[in-house]
Amino acid sequence: SAGMHQFVIWTALSAEGLGASLQHYNPVIDNAVKKEWNIPEKWKLLAQMPFGKPVDKPEDKEVVPLEERVKVYR
Which pTM does this prediction carry? Predict the structure, then answer.
């Protein structure tokens, strides 16, 4: 269900003209982030989604063909 929540939030932000970026946390920084932002110790940090007004269009991504990215071994 977390993925669906992220999708709905992302879509709602986009509908309001905002851009967002889902960034997963690296556990190495958890303690520093909790201390800086006064986050309860029992909370588990998974990701953050900073958002704001886009100042430019995103650059086109070069996509490697699926056949080169996925290998199936039988």
Answer: 0.57
Would you list the domain boundaries of the chain? 2-56
Tokens 């886009």, residue located: 54
Q: What is the pLDDT of residues 58-70, one digit of tens each?
A: 899 999 999 999 9
Nearest to 17 by CA among 59, 45, 55, 46: 55
Residues 6+ apart with CB under 8 A from 20: 9, 10, 13, 14, 49, 50, 51
- Long-range contacts of residues 60-69, Cβ cutoff 8 Å, at least 24 apart: none
2-37 residue pLDDT tens: 889 989 998 999 999 999 988 887 888 889 999 999
